[in-house]
What does this fold into?
Amino acid sequence: MKSSKISMVSKVILLVVSILFIGSLFVPMWQIELEAPQYPEGLVLKLHANKIGGDVEIINGLNHYIGMATLHTENFFEFTALPYIFGGFAVISLLLIFVAKRKAVLAFFISYILFVVLAAIDFYRWNYEYGHNLDPNAAIKVPGMAYQPPLIGYKQLLNFGAYSIPDIGGWFLIACGLLLFFIVFKEYNLFTKKKI
Amino acid sequence: MKNKFLKIIAILVLGSAVFTACKPKNSSDATVGDAEKAYVAPGKFDEFYNFVSGGFSGQLSVYGLPSGRLFRVIPVFSVDPEKGWGYSEETKPMLNTSHGFVPWDDLHHTEMSQTNGEVDGRWVFGNANNTPRIARIDLKTFKTAEIIELPNSGGNHSSPFITENTEYVVAGTRFSVPADYSDGDVAINTYKENFKGHISFVKVGKKGEMDLAFQIVTPGVNFDLSHAGKGKSHGWFFFSCYNTEQANTLLEVNASQKDKDFIMAVNWKKAEEYIKAGKGIKQKARYAHNTWDEKTHTAKSEIKTDVLVLDAAALKDICYMIPCPKSPHGCDVDPTGEYIVGSGKLAALIPVFSFDKLMGAIKDKKFDGNYGGINVIKYEAALHGEVQKPGLGPLHTEFDGKGNAYTTFFVSSEVVKWDIKSLKVLDRVPTYYSVGHLCIPGGDSKKPFGKYLVAYNKITKDRYLPTGPELAQSAQIFDISGDKMKLILDFPTIGEPHYAQAAPADLIRNNGQLKFYKIGENNHPFVAKGEKEAKVTRQGNQVHVYMTSIRSHFAPDNIEGIKLGDEVYFHVTNLEQDWDVPHGFAVKGADNGELLIMPGETATLKWIPKKVGIFPMYCTDFCSALHQEMQGYIRVSPTGSSVPLTWSVGTNLPKTK
It folds into this structure.
């Protein structure tokens, strides 16, 4: 147990993590659902690793009333970088099976958490940017009103209720984090430590 | 002559006496109704779509059952300035005929497409009763997709009934007339020699496309209504006819002389064989075939010049005449295809014919002479039985699929339920007043859905708040799920409702209905697929405005350089790509309608300015919070003015000093 080599179970979990990272490239990561009296069926923005999907054209059409800039995939460097980052994470997870050192897993886990924090800050920054940087000539101007969607959770923006939550890919990424955390916990014997 | 008038007076006196006896004492004591059965809560959907003919409005209305709520009026044979139907350049060819542009008609009957005898939710057909035509309405778009004219006909009334797999939609001539391929310049009182009946069989293709496959020429009579055989009688069609007296004047009297007229049974499979065998004679004709193209958002009208005609008198085994009492009107076939119900308008009984007996009679040649060369079957040989004393003035019959028939009675103003096999009357309810057609969902198909019966009434008198001399016509919904019919709702309708069809809501809702047109697939020759493509061009005195509309502005919205004498065409493309975001377009002084443009569609309004000045234009459909800002100006200058042609949106600002 003192060996820094990780167990077979952890290796299998790393393989799963790798698959989840790959999988997250093909499904939306995050969604912002919008509901309004005029849209009983709801509108949704789907953030993929590589693009903005969902009802983006319709939402762009509506944004001009309040002077919000329109959303275009090509305006975000993130959608170019993220596929490589997740691909990289997948490769690293695979490599860790062969490296098989718990320190290496710990290092990866910490950097992944760092990435998640940075990504959240980045997401918040964009939300803030879009919510506040409004065209002064917009038709609808409500003094003091900003249209920043919530980082996570629900917020009312004029006639729209915005509900920001992870999508399938987001759950994959959360699962990756939890699984890595589990490996670290297990390999550093944190489950049994208190008993010693 | 005097003798005849005495008879009429006797009939009238007798008729009104019975009418008075049958008339309900007071409409209000009849029912408070089971109103909650017709209640559909706000935001909830109805169980059935109801496609109701608009009669003399020429349109087709769409109601929900059981709530009676009106959803939409689909323009078919009459112009509709509200929707630009017949006003926009694109829709004008839809109303083209061999007589040129015809702005109005009289839509009497609707019939939904069927597969295996069951309503399938693809299309609904409608007939034009004045200038004979058939229209096909696409139920993915709720838009008239095709109209075909019928040559050699006058008054297409016995239409647009269909065969059980929508192989054919039929038409018949109500007014027999001299054929288009003969000399029509004849004395009217030569009806017997020169006037002919023509029954039309219009083939319906996989995508609904209609083609006049053949016509059958018959002696001159008035064809009234029809229905196809189904199941065992698939391959046959039944047409009621009156005026077998061949009167050409005062038909009220002169076409009511004989005790029996006919239901004509047509073996259309046999007719197909004759067509294949080359027995059809190609006759010269002129009739329009108009089709709507969803990609160019434009109609095309084509004039066809010939038709194959089969002679019923020469080809003995296509048509047979079944005697039917007193000027039969409705001609309805039960869900099994065995029973054919004829409703003599002036009869006091309902004859029910048996298809099996009819086949036997034909096989054993139980004929009673011929009518104009067509074999007449012996009445009793084809008769299943008669419903005795059902009421006065039977008109139409529908079925519930449980062995019951429901017949309307115009004169005694009631609906009567009877058992098809035993011919016993089971129940009767009054209608307010003088019911014409009736509709049970799927009620003329192999699979009726039952549950509700809608009666379409001709007279409303004291049923609603009065509105001067012209009163509403109405529909009344009865719950027929139990043994007794129960009135649950009545509501006024548009135009005059004749026949209607109804189908379960899900069948239509889930048929792949369109929400908007894809702008990428718009092949209109004058489309502007984005504001960058908006422009104005001049060719001589024709000015084409390639205009776009999106919430909440037009591009261009300032146009100068139009001159008196110009013909201006506004080709407006709605750039929206979302459901329920139409834009409208109207310009001051246009002797034209408005445009209502669906998302992704292009429509064209022609405008010939008649005054110099500034002309406002605006969006007519409240599209957004900034709808009232969706407007623009057009400057019209005198003929020969040197004002250059310019257009813009957002850039034509006041000059700064």
Summary: Chain B touches chain A through nine residues (CB under 8 Å). Helices of chain B lie at 2-22, 27-30, 191-194, 251-254, 268-276, 355-363, 379-382, 505-509. The radius of gyration of chain B is 27 Å. Chain B is about 10% helix and 45% strand.
